[in-house]
């Protein structure tokens, strides 16, 4: 069970003796999951294993249905009278539902599954078998390992998904997992018993991976099993809110990273204030430089799209990006980060890194503009300024760390 105060998982003696599996099924539907009905999940688990199903209906305040009280029904199996199906409602996002399900669970092993996705029935026994054989690992149903079979997604959504995984790999140091945002994974209770699980946003697995890794000197051990999804036309819409939520989740998890979390007790209040002042000062300079680049970027893009007949707005956006990159690099090098090393090799290396990160920012900006205009039907002017702001924030953090070799918080 979760400790309500510290949100850490207790691991009592009775639980350690048990081989019971607790399956936490997450669904946004008010009455039943779209693809993984709980009784069908119960039948997919080997009969000799004791089990319970906890169906968590998250985003409950947006849904209809009567879940004012938890609905519980036993399986009716005389050989396993402790088996049950429990329905609960949670008003938060996916990760809140995972936290609630784990809190209510009683099994030694916990399996989390997004019940609104079309997984094959074979994935459950595969995950459970792998977990029982490797109780110290986190087992992940992965879309990106060999032999995985998944639904095709649109190009833009696929590109943004790749960027999200790169951020997890290099920003959060999750390098040993190819699918850190999977909605289907399993772990033993003792693996997460010492972490503080916040359960906010949608990235439950990512939060567990980051925090388990932070609590250990070694990288968290993960085994990925290739996922096989049924063919279906269903496709979840990718919108601005989902991108914003992922960015927020990553930022919150980054602050729990080893360098920011394991501050020594000797770090005085004055030192913390100094670090904050340094960070804010450089952030202010960077965004002042960015403001000039933003003006050049926005005005050039908007004027070009307005004055040149029949030009595609994506070409205009690309022109504005290219025009502002070089001036931003020089101003940031000299003023923001006070780097006076202009030796050809050092300068060229920094410039290439800056261009590379700006190219990544350009991909993010172009992708967001396209998504906002084509999918969310937001006007080009508004879409452009939102995309530029998001790309600028990522550029500051990445350039501070990678191009100019500084710590994030100083």
For this structure, the CATH topology of the largest domain is: Spore Coat Polysaccharide Biosynthesis Protein SpsA, Chain A
Distance between the termini: 39 Å
Fraction in helix: 40-55%
Annotated CATH architecture of the largest domain: Alpha-Beta Complex
Helical segment tally?
12
Strand order of the largest sheet: 3-4-2-1-5-7-6-8
Overall geometry comes to: globular
Helix-strand topology string: HEHEEEHEHEHEHEHHHHHH
Number of individual domains: 2
CATH homology superfamily name of the largest domain: Spore Coat Polysaccharide Biosynthesis Protein SpsA, Chain A
Outline the low-pLDDT stretches. Answer: 1-16, 62-79, 259-266
Strand content: 5-15%
Global mean pLDDT: 79
Please tell me how large the radius of gyration is: 24 Å
Characterize the structure shown.
This protein is of the alpha/beta class and 410 residues long. The protein has two domains: 13-260, Spore Coat Polysaccharide Biosynthesis Protein SpsA, Chain A, CATH 3.90.550; 266-403, no CATH class. Helices cover 49% and strands 11% of the residues. It is built from twelve helices and eight strands. The protein has an eight-stranded mixed beta sheet, sandwiched between helices. Helix 2 (38-44) links the parallel strand 1 and strand 2. Helix 9 runs antiparallel to helix 10. Residues 1-16, 62-79 and 259-266 have low confidence and may be disordered.
